[in-house]
Amino acid sequence: MSAVTTAAPGAPVVDLDLAELRRDPYPAYAELRRTAPLAWVPSVGRHLLTRYEDIVHAEKLPEVFSSREEGSLLLRTVGPNLLREDDPEHRRLRAAAEPPTRPRQVRDLWAGAFERNAHDLLDRIAGHGEADLVRDFAEPLAAANLALVLGLRNASADDIAAWSRAMMDGNSNYADDPDLWLRAEHATRAIDEAVAEMAEAVRREPDGSVISSMVHAADPVELSEIQNNVKVIIGGGVNEPRDVFGVGAWALLRRPEMLNRVLAEPVLWKRVFEETARWISPIGMYPRQLTQDYEIAGVALPAGSRVALVIASGNRDESVFERADEFDVDRPHRPHLAFGGGPHFCMGAWVARHEVSALAWPLVFGRLKGLRLVDSAEDHLEGWVFRGLTSLNVTWQASD
Question: How large a percentage of the chain has pLDDT more than 70?
C-alpha cells in the first residue's frame, strides 16, 4: 500500500513549527485535542491523532493502523525490525527476543547486576558533591544495564549510549539533516559488527541474553534480523529509563513535600514511575499507515494515509486525566500510554520499571544526602518525538 503524503480530504490542516514542538509540544497538543483531534501537519508530513480514546482505538486495530509505514524514519535508520512489523512477523521476532525481559527474568537474572552497576556509578560521584545526574548516572546506568540484557559484552556503556543518541536523532530527523543521517549510519554499522561477534559466541555458549535468545529461538531468526532488532532496543532501551529517571527526580526535587512523602513510603516509587511516564512521555509518538479506508476522529482517511499516534498528547487528555498538566502521584489510576498498547506494548517496560523505581531512584536519594537542584543550572526539557531533560545538575553533602 503506497503512502499518501498529503492531507486527507476534509482533514484540518494545522501548521506547527518543529523548533517550537521540540521546545514544548504540550500547548499545541492541547489545542489540537480541543479543535482538531486528527489534523494534517505539513511540517511532520502526517496526520496527528491526539485524543486518548482515539489512540487506544487505533492501537487495538493493527490490521488497519499498520506499523509497516512506507518511508519510516526508523526503517531508514535501522532497517526492517519488529517495531515496524505486524503479525505474524512481529510475533515471531518478539517471541524470539522477549524472554530475557520478562518480570521473573529481570528479577532473577539481571537485578543483582543492575544494583551493582548503580552502586559503581554512585561510588564514582558520591565524593564530588555535585554532578549532572543525566550524564553521570542515568545514561551510563541505562546503557550498562542494556549491554548486559542484550548480551553485548564487547561494547562499553559509553558505546551503547553514543549509539542510542545517534539512532534516536535519526529516528526523529523530520528536518532531514544529512549530518544526523551520517552519525546514525556510523552507529548502526558499529552495532552490526558487535552483534555479529556476540551471536557467534552465544551460539557456542548461551548466556540468557536477548542475542542468545534470538540465536536459539525455536522459529529461526537471521543474523540481520537480530542486528536490526538490537538496534531498535538500543534506541528505546537507553532513552526511556534515562529520561524517566531524570524527569522523575527533577519533579520530586522541585516538590520537597512530595519527595519527603515518597522517602517515608518507598512503595510510592512505583507510582512516581508511572506518573512520570504519563506526565512527560519519553517516547512521544508512533507512526502508522492505514491499510484501508477508515474514519476516526470525524475524518474519513483513505488507505495509505500516514498517521502519528501522539501518545504524549493522549497522556495529557483532560477527559481522562484530571488536571492532566500537573505531576501528581496521588491521581486515580488510569492506564497511561507511555509504553504503547496492543501487540506493540513496550518489551522493555519491566526492565525500565525495575532499574528506575526499584533501584536507581531509591539508591540516589538514599546515598546522596541533602540532594538538591543547582539553582543556576539551565536544565531544560527538550524534544517531541522523544522528550527528556538535557541535564540534571544537582548538589549534595559530599561524603569523605
Answer: 94
